[in-house]
């Protein structure tokens, strides 16, 4: 009986060691392989693909960035509604399921067309205001 407890604790210790190694491994590897030279772009407060303008206390981004992010979130959440349709597809008739799916994706496509017509996907070139 004592041997069984020892085996169980050994499993726990091994899993704990592997978990800690998986958590600390990427940190150690990135510390060893990371470049030592810091460039000006690396020291920017946000690395999101757009250059900030203004002071450090008043960082401003163009509104089109936020609109683009909101559209992405809306469609990302809408795609989550397609998973239940895919899992329950065999319980409904094929014509009804496909027609509902086409209507849903069609409405999403109209939203993309509307955003495209409104110019959300065009990035205007603006000068920096310091």
UniProtKB/TrEMBL annotation:
Enzyme superclass (EC): translocase
Topology of this chain in the membrane: Multi-pass membrane protein
Keyword Nucleus: no
Claim: Repressor is one of the keywords in the record: no
Catalysed reaction equations from the record: a quinone + NADH + 5 H(+)(in) = a quinol + NAD(+) + 4 H(+)(out)
Principal location listed in the UniProt entry: membrane
Localisation per UniProt entry: Cell membrane; Membrane
Leader sequence segment: none
The enzyme's E.C. designation: 7.1.1.-
MF annotations from Gene Ontology: NADH dehydrogenase (ubiquinone) activity; quinone binding
Protein keywords: Membrane, NAD, Quinone, Transmembrane, Transmembrane helix, Transport
Superkingdom field: Bacteria
Membrane-crossing residue ranges in chain numbering: 12-34, 65-86, 98-117
GO cellular component labels: NADH dehydrogenase complex; plasma membrane
Function: NDH-1 shuttles electrons from NADH, via FMN and iron-sulfur (Fe-S) centers, to quinones in the respiratory chain.
Family: Belongs to the complex I subunit 3 family.
Protein name according to UniProt: NADH-quinone oxidoreductase subunit
């Amino acid at each position: 009986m004592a041997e069984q407890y020892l085996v169980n604790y050994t499993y726990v210790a091994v899993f704990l060691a592997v978990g800690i190694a998986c958590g600390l491994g990427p940190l150690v590897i990135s510390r060893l392989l990371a470049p030592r030279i810091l460039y000006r772009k690396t020291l920017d407060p946000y690395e999101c693909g757009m250059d900030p303008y203004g002071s450090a206390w008043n960082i401003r981004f163009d509104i089109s960035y936020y609109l683009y992010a909101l559209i992405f979130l809306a469609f990302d959440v809408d795609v989550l509604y397609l998973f239940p349709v895919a899992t329950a597809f065999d319980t409904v008739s094929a014509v009804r399921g496909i027609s509902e799916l086409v209507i849903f994706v069609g409405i999403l496509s109209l939203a993309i067309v509307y955003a495209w017509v409104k110019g959300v996907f065009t990035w205007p070139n603006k000068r920096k205001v310091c």
